[in-house]
Design a protein that fits this description.
The protein is an alpha/beta fold. The chain has 12 helices and 8 strands. The structure holds magnesium ion (MG) and zinc ion.
């Protein structure tokens, strides 16, 4: 039997696992884009999402409506197989996201991959007694981080904590947004950061790559996410392949056979909103 790889893979959620921003998606699907845009200048994003959920509840929209909207989020067809393969290889998978727990769990359960993840670090999201979805900040008190992290969540703090509790593991971190820059800076030389090319985290890393100690591998879409992730796992843990007597290309094709759970909308890369960017 192959040795279990000592690898932790940390995924951002929006525009990394799924191919849109889940907050924008739900607001758009439930017809509240104009209200969202008019309130955005008046409060932080995380507080606005809670306000939006209360507004939608007052308009008669139910948690079931939100759940239904989330089942049609776009996702590249290679992302679910990539996650299933990494999990099957024994990697410890986690999500660190500035979306919220309700959105993330709903999508991961719909995709049949909730069980692949050992932990989800994100803004709390829960349904209150009135049946209204409420969203709270991850960091209940302001964090002192000087990196461009949103006020409600410093992902670097999460990664720092993971590194200190699991120092013997090698980390792979995948993300796209401004909020994914801080955790990228926390990784060590032996770790790997996998930024989405031409997205904000890539731009920030490219400006001063010397600040990043981890090895950097870019990806553009779900197909490259799969290739880069599995290639990196096999580089960290070549014995994984030796012991199983399979090659990287066989690993890739094995991944292909793991069935994709497609969302009802199918895959459709899109940029629905030209809104201010969520972290
Ligand atoms: Mg993201
Ligand atoms: Zn930070």
């Amino acid at each position: 039997m192959a040795a279990r790889p000592k690898i932790v893979v940390v995924f951002d959620f929006d525009k990394t696992i799924i191919d849109c921003d889940s907050d924008n998606w739900v607001v758009d699907e439930l017809g509240a884009t104009d209200l969202f845009n008019s309130l955005l200048p008046t409060m932080p994003w995380n507080a606005l999402m809670d306000t939006m959920m209360r507004e939608l509840h007052a308009q008669g929209k139910t948690v079931e409506d939100i759940r239904k909207a989330l089942t049609s989020v776009p996702i590249h067809p290679r992302v679910v197989p990539a996650i299933k393969t990494a999990h099957a290889l024994g990697c410890d998978l986690k999500v660190v996201s500035d979306a919220n727990l309700f959105f993330i769990e709903t999508v991961l359960e719909h995709l049949g991959i909730r069980e692949c993840f050992s932990e989800i670090y994100t803004n709390p999201g829960f349904v209150d007694r009135q049946g209204c979805l409420r969203i709270q900040p991850f960091n209940s008190s302001p964090h002192a981080c000087a990196n461009p992290c949103p006020p409600n969540m410093c992902k670097g703090g999460v990664v720092e904590k993971l590194l200190s509790t699991l120092p013997e593991k090698m980390f792979i971190f995948l993300g796209d947004g401004v909020g994914d820059y801080c955790p990228s800076l926390k990784l060590r030389e032996e770790d790997h950061v996998v930024p989405r090319k031409d997205f904000p985290v890539w731009d920030l890393i490219s400006k001063t790559p010397i600040l990043v100690k981890a090895k950097i591998h870019a990806w553009t879409d779900g197909k490259e996410l799969e290739q880069t992730l599995l290639q990196t796992i096999s580089e960290i843990c070549p014995s994984l392949l030796d012991d199983e007597d399979i090659s990287f290309s066989q690993l890739m094709s094995a991944g292909c056979e793991l069935q994709t759970v497609s969302t009802s909308a199918g895959y459709e890369p899109l940029n629905r909103t030209a809104l201010p960017m969520h972290h």
